[in-house]
Design a protein that fits this description.
alpha+beta; Transcription Regulator spoIIAA; Jelly Rolls; five-stranded mixed β-sheet; 20 helices
Length: about 600
């Protein structure tokens, strides 16, 4: 099954590829050679999974995207106070290559315009320009996760035509912003802008910032965690130049663009996004890149001002039907089949508010177990709500798993509108929708029935009392005496056979045919099913231990036929044949121990 995020990105790429506005950058001659139709998208999760579409592996030069990461490097090497003396953090409102300084401090307004970027390049650690370049290359490679190379033709083209940047560098030298040779710092600046990357690379760079400065695949720290916030805040307010205000309002993510056609966007703690398309608008930003990020923000709620949880927190316990089978007690023929296949029922206990990143993690976790799954139960008891976009992904995944023969069902939603409303809104016409159950036990039984649907069915009627666990091992003459004391009684579907709290009638019931449920009362008039019994099963046997009040209600799920006998009749036979009472009590004790063990399994599984 293709994951819904991948499907979404493919559709998004197809739609945005039709936009042909904008022009390829030409003020650096080598950049004008880019194919205007190149277009790639990459989205990286916090555990390092990359979703890619289009020209995600097409190399291009990083250009001004490097500014954010060189600023991060300078902060790591010099510290916030030292860097702040040379470069401010205020939006300029001017073009990226404006020749201007703060009128009060005589320093560049921020590190995302050329003046600020040249200044931060000069602040990277190193005893000379060569050492600084080695540090720049090493830092960028750590953010990317592999070695990078310089596109020499672009570097030479930038150097040959970079007269405006030379003027900026000498201006910085004049005001003591650059302390060494300004041309050496400028040369490193040209080189860093000419580093070759692809869309996947810049998405991992963004994901490293989103992950607190640690690359999500290599697990290498690219910068101190306490400096990440400052880099992201400057990207948010200054990263898109004189489009920054509109970007923050319409998209709401820290971002940085480059005239090579790349845009990186960061959703802290959740995603890193890279988009590449060389067609630029009048402000130097990728036209398609902006549109992709707008749609991602709109469709998936990718806005830093929206609430969200860490995606890994969405999945709590994962266990199987072998750990927590339903409470029914199947006949021996089916019990062995269920025991062998119950692991194919998977439970996922979900937590918190489920946004797109959380749902992506949930779906991917489900897919990892899909190869050995027949059914998946999503326990929604601890879910606080889910976004409409997350519900849409979940609905697509449900359909995809269904096509692969895997049923996805839900339990313990309890009619909560914050969950049911978005789920209902995304169900397509003609779709039967979501299958939900009041509790995990009912969901488990449905999934067990699905496992058994193709199995050879056992006999629908069992008349021999010896099939019951209560009478196991009883000598045949005694078994015949017990059978002689029985009478047959039938009950219609939905009939209450026993009622919790009522005085015991001293009767024990052996189910010959049909199915019954045993319910215990809960608060506010509700009840919880604790067992489902079919042919060959016994209920009411606690009267053998002196129970005088019924502790549970027994309801006929279907038309039921029972063999009924009185405990007093068994007592009468036992007075003459003590072996009967000994066998019954041993079997009863063994059955109670088995039920206690099963309940402990449930408690352990549910955590």
């Amino acid at each position: 099954m293709q994951l819904p995020i991948q499907t979404y990105l493919e559709n998004l790429h197809s739609q945005v590829a039709a936009i042909n506005d904008g022009e390829v950058a030409s003020y650096i001659p080598e950049l004008s050679k880019a194919n205007p139709d190149w277009f790639g998208i990459c989205l990286v999760t916090m555990d390092g999974v990359a979703y890619t579409v289009g020209d995600a592996d097409q190399p291009f030069t990083i250009q001004s995207i490097a500014k954010a990461f060189i600023y991060a490097t300078a902060l790591a090497d010099r510290g916030k106070d030292a860097v702040s003396l040379k470069v401010g953090v205020e939006p300029s409102g001017d073009a990226f290559n404006s020749i201007s300084l703060d009128p009060v401090s005589n320093t560049p307004l921020n590190p995302m315009i050329n003046a600020g970027a040249i200044a931060t390049t000069s602040l990277v650690g190193g005893v000379n320009a060569a050492a600084q370049w080695a540090r720049i290359a090493q830092s960028l490679q750590t953010f990317v996760g592999h070695e990078l190379t310089v596109e020499e033709a672009v570097y030479q083209s930038e150097s040959d035509t970079g007269h405006r940047n030379r003027a900026i560098a000498w201006m910085l030298k004049n005001f003591d912003v650059i302390e060494g040779d300004p041309m050496a710092a400028l040369d490193n600046y040209f080189r860093q802008c000419s580093m070759l990357v692809n869309c996947r690379d810049i998405a991992y760079m963004a994901a490293t910032l989103a992950n607190g400065g640690v690359h999500p695949l290599t697990m290498q720290r690219a910068m101190p965690a306490n400096q990440v916030e400052r880099v992201l805040s400057v990207m948010a307010t200054c990263g898109m130049y004189d489009y920054a205000g509109s970007w923050l309002s319409e998209v709401g993510m820290p971002a940085k663009s480059g005239v090579g056609g790349g845009i990186v966007a960061v959703l802290p703690g959740r995603f890193g996004i890279g988009v590449f398309s060389p067609r630029l608008d009048a402000k130097g930003n990728s036209v398609r890149g902006i549109e992709v990020c707008k749609r991602l923000s709109r469709d998936f709620g990718f806005n830093v001002f929206s609430p969200g949880n860490g995606p890994a927190m969405a999945v709590g316990r994962i266990f199987t039907g072998a750990d927590a089978p339903s409470r029914r007690q199947p006949p021996a023929e089916l019990r062995s089949l269920l025991t062998a296949n119950a692991h194919r029922i998977k439970y996922f206990c979900l937590h918190g508010f489920l946004a797109v990143d959380s749902m992506e993690f949930v779906i991917r976790s489900m897919q990892k177990l899909a190869a050995e799954a027949d059914s998946i139960i999503l326990d929604m008891h601890r879910v606080e709500g889910l976004s409409l976009a997350a519900a849409r992904l979940l609905d697509q995944a449900r359909g995809g798993f269904g096509q692969d023969g895997i049923a996805v069902v839900f339990s313990r939603i309890h009619r909560r509108a914050e969950i049911t409303t978005p789920m209902r809104q995304v169900v397509q016409p003609g779709d039967a929708g979501y299958l939900t159950f009041e509790d995990n036990d009912l969901a488990a039984e449905w999934c067990e029935n699905r496992l058994l649907s193709d199995a050879e069915k056992p006999a629908q009627r069992i008349s021999n009392l010896g099939e019951a666990a209560l009478f196991r091992g009883l000598p045949q003459p005694l078994l015949q005496e017990v059978e002689a004391a029985c009478r047959t009684q039938t009950f219609a579907k939905d009939a209450q056979i026993l009622v919790s709290g009522q005085p015991s009638d001293d009767q024990i019931y052996f189910v010959e045919s049909g199915q019954i449920s045993i319910l215990v009362p809960l608060s506010q008039g509700s009840s919880q099913r604790i067992a489902t019994l079919g042919p060959g099963m016994v209920f009411g046997e606690m009267v053998l231990l002196g129970q005088t009040t019924r502790s549970a209600t027994v309801v006929a799920d279907t038309d039921v036929t029972c063999r009924v006998f009185h405990a007093s009749d068994l007592e009468r036979i036992s007075n003459r044949e003590p072996q009967l009472k000994i066998t019954l009590l041993e079997n009863l004790g063994r059955d109670m121990a088995g039920k206690l063990h099963a309940n402990m399994q449930w408690i352990t599984a549910l955590g």
